[in-house]
């Protein structure tokens, strides 16, 4: 909290700085991808000390998650979606992802597309899919081959992201959220039902 | 055909050169991605003139297709799969893709992963999906929202490639082809049936 100006409400100043960091991070992730973006550069662009980025967001991964404005965090959001049970889960999943991603098309596209520019690693979105999505879906499934089916649901979600934001197939890329939900959710639900 | 040695059967010599070009291309695509690979470099590595690559394969795109050893080419293969009608098409599509891709996991992964290292373009696999897969699927569909559904089938295929080869989710990545077909095909078929 060094450098905080006196006489200004802490909450407002904190919100301003947090917003400035998020705006810089969004620009940086979209332009240079996840691996090409450093916390130091984001901090410099936002006019704050790098320690403040760590203070607000903890890590570059969490900063990325925050730029997507997923409520709370993906794990918590998914937990809520899944808590309502397997019935209608395909619909809730597709709606949650598309409506969370749509406001950040460029960031999502950059991250899915080539954020890892030729390295061996998977794109961070794919890593998040592995650690968060597959685990969450798996907990919601019943019946046989739960692991495989959870991974294939994740495949559908990743594929939807690639097709809507990276490949930008038309009419898919421009279709309203509810049209995508109506068309895609039954296919996702079919894997959930097994 | 300059530089062909005399006294050796044309067909055998031609097959050797073609195989040498393919081997060089496979290595180059896996190591440097689609955009990072030049026909000139592939030719040099194979010890042939670049014009011979053009003679055998026509373009870098066709050379890439050839490295995947898809029988004839993807459009012809898909046409055959689709000609059998929409019934069971989900199953035939998943089996065709997985069994065609499995022998070339590294190439597929490299191309899906980061072949375009930060550029604006889509990965070539995504471009091929747009031009070949979406168009072919679309021709097989009946009912409403055919364009959207064809693009969502392509999304499922791309997502399967990402999950099996790039993210390498387990058990998905190691599952036998027929296990993947059994689990995923009904979800693909659900979009085909609309």
TrEMBL record, chains A, B:
One of its GO terms (molecular function) is transcription cis-regulatory region binding. Residues 38-57 bind DNA. Signal peptide: none annotated. InterPro entries: Homeodomain-like_sf, HTH-type_TetR-like_transc_reg, HTH_TetR, Tet_transcr_reg_TetR-rel_C_sf, TetR_C_16. Keywords: DNA-binding. Residues 15-75 form the HTH tetR-type domain. It holds the Pfam family TetR_N. The keyword DNA-binding applies. PANTHER family: HTH-TYPE TRANSCRIPTIONAL REGULATOR RUTR (PTHR30055), TRANSCRIPTIONAL REGULATORY PROTEIN (PTHR30055:SF235). This is TetR/AcrR family transcriptional regulator.
């Amino acid at each position: 909290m060094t450098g905080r100006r006196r006489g200004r409400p802490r909450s407002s100043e904190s919100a301003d700085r947090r917003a400035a960091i998020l705006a810089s991070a969004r620009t940086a992730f979209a332009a240079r991808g996840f691996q090409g973006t450093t916390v130091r550069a984001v901090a410099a662009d936002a006019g704050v000390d790098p320690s403040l980025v760590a203070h607000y967001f903890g890590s570059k991964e969490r900063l990325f998650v925050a730029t997507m404005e997923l409520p709370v965090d993906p794990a918590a959001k998914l937990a809520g979606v899944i808590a309502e049970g397997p019935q209608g889960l395909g619909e809730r999943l597709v709606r949650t992802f598309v409506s969370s991603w749509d406001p950040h098309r460029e960031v999502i596209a950059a991250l899915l597309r080539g954020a890892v520019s030729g390295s061996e690693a998977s794109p961070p979105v794919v890593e998040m899919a592995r650690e968060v999505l597959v685990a969450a879906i798996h907990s919601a499934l019943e019946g046989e081959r739960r692991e495989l089916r959870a991974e294939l649901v994740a495949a559908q979600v990743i594929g939807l992201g690639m097709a809507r934001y990276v490949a930008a197939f038309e009419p898919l890329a421009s279709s309203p959220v509810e049209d995508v939900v109506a068309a895609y959710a039954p296919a996702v639900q079919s894997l959930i039902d097994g």
